[in-house]
Amino acid sequence: MLSFDPDDSRYIEDLRSYVAIPSISREADRPTMQAAAEWVAARLDFAQPRIVETGGHPAVVAGWTGAPGAPTVLVYGHYDVQPTGDLDEWITPPFELAVADGRLRGRGVTDDKGPTYIALEVVRQFMAQEGRLPLNVKFLLEGEEEIGSPHLAGYVRAQADELAADLVISADGAMWRPGEPSLSVASKGLLALDVEVTGANRDLHSGRYGGTVANPLHALSRILASLHTPDGRIAVAGFEDGIPELGPTERAEIAAVPFDEETYRADLRVSALTGEPGLSTLERLWTRPTLEINGVTGGGSYTVIPRRAAAHLTCRLVPGQQPDRVAAAIQAHIGALDLPGVRVSLTTEPGAVPAYTIAPDHPAIRAARQALADVYPGQDVLLARIGGTLPATTLFEEALRAKTLFFSFSTSDELLHAPNEFLRIPRLREGMRAWERLLRLLAEGEHRLTPG
After folding, report:
1. Which 3-state string (H, E, C) describes the chain?
2. Mean pLDDT along residues 298-313
3. Mean pLDDT, rounded, for 439-452
């Protein structure tokens, strides 16, 4: 059994230096992203780390294969982070790690710098204390996950032999909630689209031209309103093609998960929960697709008929849906609307991915459940589903023919992507003990992975 530090001070100082690098993949310059990659590579100095080009931000790859005949796992994570959002909403500067009330606060601390640090520290301690790892471990930490991993697929496919593994373990992908240990057996897919409506060849004075030409904002409003029925159902024909019906067994399993809808509502400070009728909140959250309007632009607070209006849409997809077919269904739906006087275009963003699942009885899930049960004795390990998307999972299954196990010690309430993102300090050492146990279980005994 590894011996970890008696307190968290060194771990916090390590994370302080990591969080201080503003590695926002959507806007950071190359030196900033390079600095973050170098920080990660330095933690893998025992495993011949390399900072490699992907066509976008660099990735870090490494590997220790000193256990002939043993299984091989690929540890995946990312060093890039989301933009800060409104700085006025942050209690403390986002790239200065703050410590208060048993929490670490800073951009990226829970998504995904803290969780990846936990995994890296465990393998470092194996090497420092035992001189070896219990199985072969490879590493792939990218710098573009927060922008949809646009260059990851090309790199993984080109380097499939180098990255080959019996299992991928993702340090990304939060646990369901802080009150109990959990593992995710599914994550939703993602499709992002942009709708643009154009009218006249310039912005128009609303007094001189109002009532005589089409207003792109009016047309866009009609488009957006048409996407759902008044009771909350998605109104796009063909959008749900391929989705299997939610059966009584699955509904019973979800109903057995402790979940208080009133607590959920109160925490969000909304007057009511809404969505597709006939389903519980958890059924909608875990098993149903979504079509969300994320942003609308056009005109402003002045008397103008804008020449252009636009909206950004995202769809979270469930098993059975294919992104290209969903995009085609939305295109056909919009194309069928009567919108005189304007032109409408729909553009699909690159990086769309289908939903991902791993069987609840997969050997990796069994091993991970045992590892969590050992670290959290007396607590049931919940099998949950991620409402978010991890683009790499389906890629690894296709290119490496390996399933991905989500093993993160982030939790979904830690303000991921929002101001004041935080990580609970106890999760550091809890996560380290669980990672140690998981790697040992996968290496030998009844939960051993089958090599090759």
Report:
1. CCCCCCCCHHHHHHHHHHHCCCCECCCCCHHHHHHHHHHHHHHCCCCCCEEECCCCCCEEEEEECCCCCCCEEEEEEECCECCCCCHHHCCCCCCCCEEECCEEECCCHHHHHHHHHHHHHHHHHHHHHHCCCCCEEEEEEECCHHHCCCCHHHHHHHCHHHHCCCEEEECCCCECCCCCCEEEEEECEEEEEEEEEECCCCCEEHHHHCCCCCCHHHHHHHHHHHCECCCCCECCCCCCCCCCCCCHHHHHHHHCCCCCHHHHHHHHCCCCCCCCCCCCHHHHHHHCCEEEEEEEECCCCCCEECCEEEEEEEEEECCCCCHHHHHHHHHHHHHCCCCCCCEEEEEECCCCECCEECCCCCHHHHHHHHHHHHHCCCCCCEEEEECCCCCHHHHHHHHCCCCEEECCCCECCCCCCCCCCEEECHHHHHHHHHHHHHHHHHHCCCCCCCCC
2. 96
3. 92
Under a CB-based contact definition with an 8 Å cutoff, are residues 58 and 51 in contact? yes
Asked whether the predicted pLDDT for residue 391 surpasses 90, the reply is no
Cβ–Cβ < 8 Å for 196, 171 = no
Question: Please, which residues bridge with residue 311 across strands?
Answer: 195, 296
Q: CA 90, 94, 95: angle at the middle one, nearest 5?
A: 165
Q: Which domains does the chain have, with CATH numbers?
A: 9-187+356-443 (3.40.630.10), 189-243+289-348 (3.30.70.360)
pTM tops 0.90: no
Residue 194 preceded by cis peptide, ω within 30: no
What's the pLDDT tens digit per position in 338-351?
999 999 999 999 87
CA neighbor of 391 nearest in space, from 423, 349, 429, 361: 349
Which residues, 6 or more positions from 52, have their beta carbon under 8 angstroms from its beta carbon? 58, 59, 60, 61, 155
The answer to whether 30 and 109 have CB atoms below 8 angstroms apart is no
**In the structure, what pLDDT confidence band is assigned to residue 421 with cuts at 50, 70 and 90?**
very high
Which residue, among 65, 42, 198, 60, has the nearest Cα to 137 in the 3D structure? 65
Mean pLDDT of 217-233: 97
pLDDT tens string 167-218: 999 999 889 888 899 999 999 999 999 999 999 999 999 999 999 999 999 9
CA distances from residue 102 to 8, 229, 372, 431 in whole angstroms, order as listed:
11, 44, 21, 15
